[in-house]
Amino acid sequence: MEKKILLIFILLNLILASGKSQTVIVDGHAFLESAALHDGIQIVFERTIPSSYFDTVYSDASGYFSDTILTGIYDIHYTKPAYLPITTTGKSLYNNTTLNDTTLESAGLQGPLSGIITQGTYKVGNDISVAFGDTLIIEPGTILRFKPNLTFNI
C-alpha cells in the first residue's frame, strides 16, 4: 500500500512538473552605430511557440543585456529611436543562450524634410519627402546614400 501511495505521489509530481514553464537566461550585446554609449536599446522577446508571451529588457551603456524568459521559439526585436530596427525571427530558446552581437544602424534622414541640407554625406534610412508648399535646399556636393527600395517624394 505504501509503495502504491509513493508511486501515485511521484506520478502526480511528474504530471505537475511537466505543466510548468521552464525558464532560460538570454543575454548578449546590442550596439548603436558610431556611438560611444549603447544604453537604452529596447530588446523585445516575442514568443510565437508554444503560446504568445512577451518580455522586454534594455541594454546598459556597454550594450549588454540579460533577461530570464520562458522557453520557446521567439522573434527578437531590437529598437531605439533614430536607429533602424532589427528583428530576428524563429530563434529557439530552450537553453541558456548568448545571442550574437547586434548593431543598429543610424536611421539618418527620414520622413518629411524642409530647410537646408548642408554639404556632406547623409544616409537615408527611410522614405523622405518634401511636402507641398515646403522648401528643401540641398547644397552642392551633398551626397545622399539611400538604403534599397526607398523613395524621395517631392
Q: State the helix count.
A: 1
The tally of domains stands at 2
Shape: elongated
Main beta-sheet annotation: 4 strands, mixed
CATH classification, class level of the largest domain = Mainly Beta
- Per CATH, the superfamily of the largest domain is Immunoglobulins
Low-confidence stretches: 11-19
Radius of gyration: 24 Å
Kindly, what is the distance between the CA atoms of the first and last residues, rounded to a whole number of angstroms?
86 Å
Q: What's the architecture of the largest domain, going by CATH?
A: Sandwich
Percent of residues in β-strands: over 45%
And the CATH topology of the largest domain? Answer: Immunoglobulin-like
Count of individual beta strands: 14
Estimate the helix proportion, in percent.
10-25%
Written as H for each helix and E for each strand, in order along the chain, the element string is: HEEEEEEEEEEEEEE
Question: What structural class do the secondary elements suggest?
Answer: mainly beta
Average pLDDT, to the nearest integer? 88
